[in-house]
Amino acid sequence: MMNIKTAITILSLFFLSTWAKAQYTMHKMISVGYTYQNQSFGELGGKLLFLKNDDVIYRLGASALMGSTNSKFAIMPKLQADILLNFEKNVDFYHSYYFLAGVEGTNKYIAPKIGVTLFGMLDLTGGYAFPIGDTRLNGKEMKGLNINFTLNIPTVFIHDMLK
Fold first, then answer.
1. Distance between CA atoms of 138 and 48, rounded to whole angstroms?
2. Measured on CA atoms in the order 142, 138, 39, 75, is the torsion positive or negative?
């Protein structure tokens, strides 16, 4: 079973080799959401969005999953990488939705996922989590169905609202 360090290294090399070919624009976002992974968790973190054009967008993120597991409060760090795709041309509301493919990993599981996102800001994804070794969170195994609902708020938007 691939450990989390190997997965992060492979993802980093993939994204770095992609970015070396062209100049990408980067946008910072704050993310809040809900994750179901054998248990309900609230999510709070940040993401970086990289784009050259708006057909293919890359996102990297880090967040904390917080919830109660077996009547004990628990926090898990989460890293994720996503690719957003929309090749539709000549539409009135250009690129309002994207198909999303990605992977997320914590110190307890790794979960490939697919889904949709509205404007890159409102995500609905699902996947399946594979546990890392025999790790458990307060005695509960973290494997199986993985569902995420996330709101990504651009920091530019927050800055403009506070002016």
1. 31
2. negative
